[in-house]
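Dear Dr. H.,

I hope your travels went smoothly. While you were away I took the liberty of generating a structure for the chain from your last submission, since the lab meeting agenda had it listed for discussion. I wanted you to have the full record in hand beforehand rather than looking at slides cold. The sequence, exactly as received, is reproduced here:
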Amino acid sequence: MKEINISGVKVGHAYSPFIVAEMSGNHNQSLDIALQIVEAASKSGVHAIKLQTYTADTITLDVNSSDFYISDANSTWNGAKLYDLYKKAYTPWEWHKPIMDMCKALDLVCFSTPFDETAVDFLETLDVPCYKIASFEILHLPLIKKVAQTGKPIIMSTGMASIAELDDAVKIARNNGCKDLILLKCTSSYPADPSQSNLLTIPHMQKLFDCQVGLSDHTLGIGVSVASVALGATFIEKHFTLSRADGGVDSSFSLESEEMKNLVIETNRAWQALGRVCYKPSGSEEKSLQFRRSLYVAQDMKVGDEFTQENLRIVRPGFGLSPKYYDEFLGKKISRDLKKGTPVTWNILF
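The corresponding predicted structure, in token form, is as follows:
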């Protein structure tokens, strides 16, 4: 499975997970807060910042019928009118350049999720290095086609998608010029319950679509993200905020700075721990071999004495023969005097 290069940062199993801080609407309509989020994310050690590019008018209609209101008691946004929610959550397009400029100055990758074709045209003027397709847009095949035609890497969230729907999206992306594709396992509820994460889908998805697979994680905390690395995730996206107490449309399931820092550290540790299939002592274990048990003389013995359960013991350290030879030595005579504490070797027998 080939690695993918995003602005000089390589994504693949040979590299620590690519970590993305999703800003979303946590800037609370303040460019100053948005820039503070970028700075805080940089200090936490993430690789990238992700924006969302839309307006209320490009994503929905300003209509007061029940269809255009969220009615879900379990939703963070229950009761909200879609148009008003998106008007509150969107990132003004004129902010994109200063945000991206700051990311560049801090050596962060910055890209975005376009929600319609006009957003793609706009993002192309900013020369974004890659594109994200949101879970809710996976049926928007014209959008995926347009993004694919840029020739840039595509990161595609798969929340709610059936295999057939995902196959349609992947095919249209690949048939229109997408050479580098990363799929993200995602549970599209906010916040998401870890029990609904179904991370075992990650290795299956890798084989099914022959591409890198990561995680767009809406659960609370970092446990699910860390677990995903053990199953092959190479790319992790997590919502980020300066402080959940400040509010913001996604703040309730976003990480704060210290939490994001821990996510970076622990996912890297999880990746390092993967290693390879190995059934022998690792380099760091070599010195510990001496502390395993082995055969030792447990009493002073004279030439011609036989080994018994009293004078032959299986003890630490491990400089004698393996304990598997214990029964072979019982009843055997020794060829010379032996002191208590002598490691047992083959040349002490007649």
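Two observations you may find useful: Residues 283-348 form a domain with the Type Iii Antifreeze Protein Isoform Hplc 12 fold (CATH 3.90.1210.10). The chain is about 30% helix and 15% strand.

With kind regards,
E. W.
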